[in-house]
């Protein structure tokens, strides 16, 4: 049997404009490894830059040919 196994997770903390965040998510969606983004929070950053601040958790997965069984 085969399974997907969570390889690791990390909290990401990024700042930029809304378009930059969209480009970032688009780029990670094209990775060969599965990356799940969850718990996305987006907040405005004060000032004339019109920046946003975002935090989220990114979890990577790998394909396990052994179905999670130890060898």
- N-to-C span: 14 Å
Low-confidence stretches: none
Report the β-strand fraction as a percent range: over 45%
The 3D shape can be described as elongated
Average residue-wise pLDDT: 84
Largest sheet: 3 strands, antiparallel
Radius of gyration: 16 Å
* Order of strands in the sheet with most strands: 1-3-2
Number of helices: 1
Helix content: 10-25%
**Class by alpha and beta content:** alpha+beta
- What's the β-strand tally? 3
Pattern of helices and strands: EHEE
What is the element layout, followed by pairings?
Blueprint: E1 3-16, H1 18-29, E2 34-44, E3 52-64
Antiparallel strand pairs: 1-3, 2-3
Overview of the structural elements:
The protein has 71 residues and is of the alpha+beta class. It is 17% helix and 54% strand. It contains 1 helix and 3 strands. It has one helix at 18-29, and strands at residues 3-16, 34-44, 52-64. The protein has a 3-stranded antiparallel beta sheet. The chain is elongated and about 55 Å long. The two termini are 14 Å apart. The model has no long low-confidence stretch (mean pLDDT 84).
